[in-house]
Design a protein that fits this description.
Blueprint lengths: L2 E7 L13 E4 L15 E7 L9 E2 L17 H19 L4 E7 L9 E4 L11 E2 L2 E5 L1
Parallel strand pairs: 4-7, 6-8
Antiparallel strand pairs: 1-3, 1-5, 2-3, 5-8
């Protein structure tokens, strides 16, 4: 099983311009994903070094909070770097007046209701951002 990270935005930019070895935006073969709750017209699958969405910083509940990587909770360096690149892309879109949301879903979880998290990027550092399993994020 894998994580699936789906992003939508008002931006018409081709987000694949940000692709690297550790971050990949793709918009082909999207019909296999459910975009029912995403808010914006331009939709992207977001993958990482493994090809799927597993190689980002993820947190599974029951308690969810943003936070910097901690020594007592080891994380892959490339997962941290991929998450940093992702949030920088989101910040760049927001700085141009675009809207962005995304959903982080564990593959096979087809729940219609996904908890929402409003993420005010002026209140958290890039290093603190991580995805919450089975949550939808609205970036402001």
């Amino acid at each position: 099983m894998c994580y699936t990270l789906l992003l939508s935005t008002t931006s018409d930019d081709n987000l694949s311009q940000f692709n690297s070895e550790i971050l990949r935006f793709g918009n082909t073969d999207l019909e296999r994903f459910s975009f029912k709750t995403l808010l914006h017209p331009n939709r992207w699958y977001v993958g990482a070094r493994t090809g799927c969405s597993c190689s980002f910083r993820h947190l599974a509940g029951p308690e969810f909070s943003f936070g910097v990587p901690e020594d007592w909770f080891p994380e892959e360096k490339s997962d941290v770097e991929a998450t940093l690149l992702f949030i920088r892309v989101v910040r760049s879109l927001l700085s141009k007046g675009e809207r962005v949301d995304c959903i982080d879903r564990w593959e096979g979880n087809d729940a219609e209701v996904t908890p929402w998290v409003s993420v005010n990027l002026s209140q958290i550092l890039d290093e603190e951002f991580r995805f919450f399993e089975n949550h939808q994020f609205d970036f402001i």
